[in-house]
């Protein structure tokens, strides 16, 4: 079996910087035409000038035979100004502003502490200029159970935000719950959408503990119950335009995953398209795969769809146990397992 589809984009990607950027970028550039690049570096990308500099370092690392285009983002802080939003929009290089609640995930310590108290003028300017807000949708209150943090964020932050600024475009990133599916589907189409990762389509929270603690299945937002996984699969395979591909591929050196306080993040770029194809095939919805991977994202962002095509071929291949680089090893998602679909350029 073979499918030819429009080249996909990745609407949520961590490329890191330095030697890690150079190591992982080719995996994304091989399969995706564009990617929304996350800004949570050290220090974070909080200004348009920093985003331009980061973009230049990415461009230098792109393989010469690739058409990959990085789409830059800013990291929202309590100190971000409306003038910075105007600069970002004017640059034509920044495509969104990322909301990390302070302490929610990797390198989020500089994130927002009070969205409505500190950032409302910025959000109003974003709505005016049609610059999307990209949301890590979890509260960070330690009194809220980690498995409930997405649900509580929707109730206390997102629902009031949509009511207050209905013209603000919002992407709820890497959704993990039936609550998120219900919220996105309840909003006006074209204004609120969601990215979905391979791990939240294929794994539930049992995958963290089967056969012992599994650090390479640990990500944030954390994997949830099976009922939530099923709800997300149903949503993305339904043909809805509100959901699109965002891998949240997040590379870490193996030593930083397999340690006493391991980092959150799953590196899935080398296997993402194979895994998305698996999900849609198992749901009997391969005819809807192309819209999810290649149409819904650019349509939401107001960008043209890619013109190039890729092939997805039913050809079993084994995922490497690890990927070795001079600085160390990275363990990819589903390491050592055999996958049924293989992606290649036309």
UniProtKB/TrEMBL annotation:
Its EC number is 3.5.2.3. Residues 10-319 form the Amidohydrolase-related domain. The keyword Zinc applies. It is an enzyme of class 3 (hydrolase). One of its GO terms (biological process) is pyrimidine nucleotide biosynthetic process. Keywords: Hydrolase, Metal-binding, Pyrimidine biosynthesis, Zinc. InterPro entries: Amidohydro-rel, DHOdimr, Dihydroorotase_CS, Metal_Hydrolase. One of its GO terms (molecular function) is metal ion binding. HAMAP family: PyrC_classII. Belongs to the metallo-dependent hydrolases superfamily. DHOase family. Class II DHOase subfamily. NCBIfam families: pyrC_dimer. This is Dihydroorotase, mitochondrial. The lineage of its organism: Eukaryota, Viridiplantae, Streptophyta, Embryophyta, Tracheophyta.
């Amino acid at each position: 079996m073979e499918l030819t589809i429009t080249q996909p984009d990745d609407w949520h990607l961590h490329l890191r910087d330095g030697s890690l950027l150079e190591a992982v970028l080719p995996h994304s550039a091989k399969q995706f035409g564009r990617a929304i690049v996350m800004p949570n570096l050290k220090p974070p990308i909080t200004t348009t000038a920093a985003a331009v500099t980061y973009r230049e370092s990415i461009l230098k690392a792109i393989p010469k035979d690739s058409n990959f285009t990085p789409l830059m983002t800013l990291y929202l802080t309590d100190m971000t100004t409306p003038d910075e939003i105007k600069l970002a929009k004017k640059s034509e290089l920044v495509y969104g502003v990322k909301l990390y609640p302070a302490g929610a995930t990797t390198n989020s310590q500089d994130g927002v502490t009070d969205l409505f108290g500190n950032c409302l003028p910025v959000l109003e300017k974003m709505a005016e200029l049609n610059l999307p807000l990209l949301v890590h949708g979890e509260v960070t209150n330690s009194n809220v159970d980690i498995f409930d943090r997405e649900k509580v964020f929707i109730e206390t932050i997102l629902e009031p935000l949509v009511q207050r600024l209905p013209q603000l475009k919002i992407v709820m990133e890497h959704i993990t719950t039936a609550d998120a599916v219900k919220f996105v589907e309840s909003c006006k189409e074209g204004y609120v959408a969601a990215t979905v990762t391979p791990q939240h389509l294929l794994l539930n929270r049992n995958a963290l503990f089967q056969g012992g603690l599994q650090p390479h299945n640990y990500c944030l937002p954390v994997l949830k119950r099976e009922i939530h996984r099923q709800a997300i699969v149903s949503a993305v395979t339904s043909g809805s335009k509100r959901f699109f591909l965002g891998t949240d591929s997040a590379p870490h050196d193996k030593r930083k995953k397999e340690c006493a306080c391991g980092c959150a993040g799953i590196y899935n770029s080398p296997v993402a398209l194979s895994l998305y194809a698996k999900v849609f095939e198992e749901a009997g919805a391969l005819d809807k795969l192309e819209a999810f991977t290649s149409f819904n994202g650019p349509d939401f962002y107001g960008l043209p769809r890619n013109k190039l095509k890729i092939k997805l071929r039913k050809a079993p291949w084994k995922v490497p146990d690890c990927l070795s680089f001079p600085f160390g090893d990275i363990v990819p998602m589903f390491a050592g397992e055999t996958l049924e679909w293989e992606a290649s350029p036309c």
